Amino acid sequence: MIGGQGASANIDSVPPKSKLGQNFLRDPKAVRRIVAALGDCSGSTVVEIGPGRGAITRELMSKAKRVVALEIDEALTAQLSGELTGAGGREIVIENADVLAFDFEGASRAAGGKLVVVGNLPYYITSPILMRLADSARALDRAVLMVQREVADRVTAKPRSRDFGLLSVMVQMHGPVEPIFTLPPSAFSPPPEVHSTVFRWRFAPRFEELGVDRDVFVGLLRKVFALKRKTLANNLRAAGMEPETIARALEETGVDAKARAEELPPEKLASLCRWLQEKGSLRAAE
Ligand code: SAM
């Protein structure tokens, strides 16, 4: 955590660093829509990923019980902390921290309840952030996140659609997702080269309901989605599984021998996982 030391005259005078994905939102209506999409957070601790110059943070301050904003850029952290700490509204902490190392479980325990997450994500680490949130799903209630449009298309894709893949199943196994709205590059300063989409993610992991161990299932997903154009059977073979085991597994779980993983809903992948695990052909973190 950093105080106001080192803060310069105005946060807009801190030059943007493109290597940290610093494309700042400059559309006030979009900011309001993002915070409104979180719903009522007057009783919640909201963790903001990458507050930057504080566009979302300022809107959040009057709505959340407590805001914990994680910013990796030391200069921005100092500046924002100097501008917002003690500025009225609810409790706010601007932490100089890497979101990928943040302990969401610990923060949830300290808050005495599940966390709400918001962020216009730094696009260079979107997938690792989504995986970090998935890993922390038990500590989280919901998230509203802005990502590159193509990533949102993959995250919210339905099985058999062009964009459905490993990222879609990984995210959707941790709870339902829905796109909310899309913004053009001109909504940001400096403008990125891509459109951006905001989506909502309600954390409700499905592993128990589908009767699979999370780590075992994630291990299977990594195998069957390893090579996109290959069939699921070929991917399992490439991962070292016996052809006879694969053939029996597919037959007994009703999966077409020529199916690709992208064509199967999570329920089908889960029944395949259960079969393989019962036969001792799959272990966690393989
Ligand atoms: N929320 C602000 C807005 O909407 O204008 C800034 C969003 S900008 C797209 C992403 C922010 O994430 C930047 O401020 C950047 O410095 C910060 N950031 C980049 N990598 C980070 C990391 N690993 N952990 C925390 N923040 C990070």
Strand content: 15-25%
Number of alpha- plus pi-helical segments? 11
Please, what is the average pLDDT?
Answer: 93
Gross geometry: elongated
Top-tier CATH class of the largest domain: Alpha Beta
Which strand order do you get reading across the main beta sheet? 4-3-2-5-6-9-7
N-to-C order of helices and strands: EHEHEHEHEHEHHEEEHHHH
Radius of gyration computed on alpha carbons: 21 Å
Describe the 3D structure.
The chain contains eleven helices and nine strands. The chain is α/β, with parallel strands linked by helices and 286 residues long. It has two domains: 9-202, Vaccinia Virus protein VP39 (Rossmann fold, 3-Layer(aba) Sandwich), CATH 3.40.50.150; 214-278, rRNA adenine dimethylase, C-terminal domain (Helicase, Ruva Protein, domain 3), CATH 1.10.8.100. It has a seven-stranded mixed β-sheet with strand order 4-3-2-5-6-9-7, sandwiched between helices. A two-stranded antiparallel ribbon has the order 1-8. The two termini are 38 Å apart. Residues 1-6 have low confidence and may be disordered. The structure holds S-adenosylmethionine.
